[in-house]
Structure formats: structure tokens, C-alpha cells
Amino acid sequence: MKAELQKYIDTIPAVAEAAELKETFWLNDRKVPEAQQNITEVHPDQIKDASDRLLRFAPYLKKVFPELEETNGIIESELREIPSMKEFLKRVYGAEIEGRLMLKMDSDLPVSGSVKARGGIYEVLKHAEDLALAAGKLKETDDYSILAESEFVKFFGQYTVQVGSTGNLGMSIGIMSAKLGFHVIVHMSADAKQWKKELLRSRGVEVIEYADDYCAAVTQGRINSDADPMSYFVDDENSQNLFMGYSVAGERLRAQLEEQNITVDSDHPLFVYIPCGIGGAPGGVTYGIKQVYGDNVHCFFTEPTHACCMLMGMATGEHDGVSVQDFGIDGRTDADGLAVGRPSAFVGRVIEPMLSGIATISDCKLYDLMRGLLSEEEIFIEPSSCAAFAALIRPEDMKTYIEKQGLADKMGQATHIAWATGGCMVPEETREIYLKTPGCLKEA
Ligand SMILES: *Cc1c(COP(=O)(O)O)cnc(C)c1O
Fold it and tell me: Mean pLDDT over residues 286-291, rounded?
């Protein structure tokens, strides 16, 4: 460990526990009321802009992806109550969750099967629109289904899109870019699963593999892209476009809660738990939800013990100035979607005044939770997604937070949403392997 970081180990208990690879729960003491109104890095108008852009593209998406026929080209997932899972969490972890427990099933998001179908696809669409508008080939008032015509496929074919990925971002960027006609190169880190590489290659995506971690894949991708004036780099470490694509989830969630007659106000608090890698997806979703519900929503991030980069960045206030490796942590986890050693350069700073806290979880528990959700609710989600339950299975810490916030007498009317971030594209054989992987629990 780097010697200058010792001061954080000595003064912040959650950092000390995390550095020892223990599960921990950090509560954010820099959270302030109404924070979402005072963010300067991004603006709510950008959410509206992203949302409008997704609507413009809906006719195109409907045309090229048959699975979007039903939703008229809108990529969205179900919000489902999971009462049996709530019982499971109580039985196995002693988590007496008051209120309703729901699952936001981005694990089933169409087109690319993970939360990355929000931000990743959005950024590719925005880039395509920018190019076509600048070339005078498209107007915002056009029916965008014309983009499926060969003239456009040929036009986009002159350009390259590149991205560094642990897997799921590459899937979203790769599938969408290839569909539009772009030449697309995905730089995959060592954690990326073989089936994701194969699936991408089958769709015409160029996949470059690295023996190194995610940061190395991103660095090389950026260098390659910068050297080519016709290439665009999707920068997961800094991208505001990705962030805005994710943030549209806020208004979509509101519509779903309203549809199910679920109230969120000062007497009916909402709790949202989102697995975190580099921070873009959970950060963007949090920003979007905060714009809708303000102080009545409480957002938590969850991370694997071996890749707790956001916790380290936020708790120390160093953000992307520290990596988990600086603390002597290896960054290796079965939660491939979360296998990131250094947090985003901008997300941590944006959400610092909004985030409630961060919980970490051991890999073996992810498998227990995965089997629990499958047996209780018949829902399969990938190991990374299962981190969504990390805070909920720490009832003592949740109680501390709830009491500090003065919410103890309102929890009977609370709604908890575990954000399932990926799963439906996992091939059957890989699913079988996951389901046979030992967990932390002894019982069979
Ligand atoms: C990418 C990913 C996340 C987290 O998103 P970040 O933007 O990296 O923080 C969570 N779950 C899954 C399954 C993912 O693929």
C-alpha cells in the first residue's frame, strides 16, 4: 500500500475495513439536502435533451431491433415486486426489510442485456446523430427510421467507434455501433468473459484482448482512437453522454412507480441500491432519480470487496486520484461488470453531495444471492447484479442510516429497489457454471 494513504486507514473505519478486504458499509457524511439543485458539472436540461434524443431514435430502433416492436423502440425494463426474495433475505441474513422490496430488471433490458443498454447505446446514437446532422444528411424533424437505409450504413461505415470495456459496455457499444454501420473496435480487459467476445465478433465487431485490467484496455483504446481522425472514443472514465443516457432512467422509473400506484414523498421514502463499477451507470441513474424525487429518495452504491474503487475514492475525497491497487487490493472479482480499480474522474464529484452510502460484498455471497433470487422468484441475474443486495443484507447499518435520517417511523411505507444491472444475455452453459459455483453458505 502507498504510505501516504495510511492517514485514511487511521481515520476512516470503512476505508480500513475495505483495505483489509472486509465487507463494509460507508455512510456519506458529505451528503447535503437538496444537493441535486446545486450541481454545476451537469444540468437537468441535459436529461431532457437525452430523453428527447431517445424518442427521436425510437422509430429507428424499432425498425432494426425486432425485440423493441412491443415498446415502440423504447429500451426499458420491468419494475417488479419480489416478496419471496424479501423473505429469503430475512431468513438467511436476518434482514428485516420494512416496506416493499422491488427489483428493477435492467438484467432483462433488450438489445444488450444490461444497464449499459441505457448509457452505451445512447452515446452511440448521439454520435451517429451528430455526424449525420453535421453532414447535412439528417434533420432532427426527420423520421429516424431512414437511418436503417443502406446510404446511412455506408456513411457511418467511414467512421470508427472504439471503447475499453470489462464486457457489458463493449456489448452495448459494439452491438449498436455495428448495427448503424460503424467500424467498431472493443478493447477488452482480462476480466471480460469469453462468450461476450464471441458474441461481439459474430456481430462484426473487432475485439482486441488484453492480459491486463480495465484501465489498461481503456488507455490503449484511447491511444488508438486519438491516432485516427475518423475514430470516436467512448470514454467511460469521463463521458457525460454516457452519464446522461443513464440518467433518463429517473423519469422512466417515476412513470413505472406511478403506474403501480406507489407513492414516493416525505412519508413514503424510496431506497435505491445500484451496483457500481467505474460509477457512470449508478451515478447517472442516481442523478436522474434525484432530479425526480429529491430528498425523498436515498441512493446507495454497492461494490465487490476486491474492486471497491468508488468507496475508496469517495470516502477519502481523492476520487480518481486513488485506485484499489494503491491500497494493496488486487481488483480481481467474479463480478466482471464491476471489476474496476479506479473510479470515474467526474462521477464521484458530481454525486458526492447526493449519495447516501456505499456497501461492499464478498464474491461468494453474490452466488448465494443469485441462487436465492432464482429459487424464490424465478429470476436469473448475473453475479455483478447480485451486489444490488449488499446494503440490504446489513440491517444494522441500514438502521443507523434510517435513524440518522429520522425515517424510523416511516419505513413501513418505504419502497426499496434493488437495481439488477445485467443477466439475460448470459449463455446457458455459463449460467450453469455460475449456478454450481460455491457460495458462502454451507447449506446445500
Ligand atoms: C457496468 C456495470 C455496472 C456498473 O456500471 P459502471 O458504470 O461501471 O459503474 C453494474 N452492473 C453491471 C452488470 C455492469 O455491467
Answer: 98
Taking Cα atoms as reference points, which of 148, 164, 131 lies closest to residue 344?
164
Cα–Cα separations (whole angstroms), residue 177 to 29, 31, 76, 251, 381: 41, 38, 19, 26, 25
The predicted structure's pLDDT at residue 189: 84
Distance CA 194, CA 254 (A): 37
Give the number of the atom of ligand 1 that is nearest the alpha carbon of residue 168. 15
Q: What is the pLDDT of residues 121-158, one digit of tens each?
A: 999 999 999 999 999 999 999 999 999 999 999 999 99
Q: What is the pLDDT of residue 211?
A: 86
What pLDDT band is residue 325 in, cutting at 50, 70 and 90? very high
Mutation test residue for ligand 1: of 213, 246, 384, the one with most atoms within 8 Å of CB = 384
Count CA atoms closer than 13 A to 271's CA, side-chain side.
30
Q: Which residues line ligand 1 (CB under 6 A)?
A: 114-116, 168, 275-282, 337-338, 340, 382, 384-385, 421-422
Residue 310 CA, distance from chain mean position: 13
Dihedral, CA of residue 336, residue 342, residue 344 and residue 346, to nearest 10: 160
Mutate to test the pocket of ligand 1, among 421, 426, 430, 434 (most ligand atoms within 8 A of CB): 421
In the reported structure, the alpha carbon of residue 275 is separated from the centroid of ligand 1 by a whole-number distance in angstroms of: 6
**100 contacts: CB under 8 Å, gap ≥ 6:** 81, 262, 414, 415, 416
- Whose Cα sits closest to atom 15 in ligand 1? 337
Ligand 1 centroid, distance to 175 Cα (angstroms): 17
Ligand 1 centre distance from Cα of residue 277 (Å):
5
pLDDT at 443: 61
Cα–ligand 1 centroid distance for 92 (angstroms): 26
Contacts of 86 (CB under 8 A, 6+ apart): 97, 101
Candidate of 105, 114, 237, 274 to mutate for ligand 1, largest count of ligand atoms within 8 Å of Cβ:
114
Which residue's CA is the nearest one to ligand 1's atom 8? 277
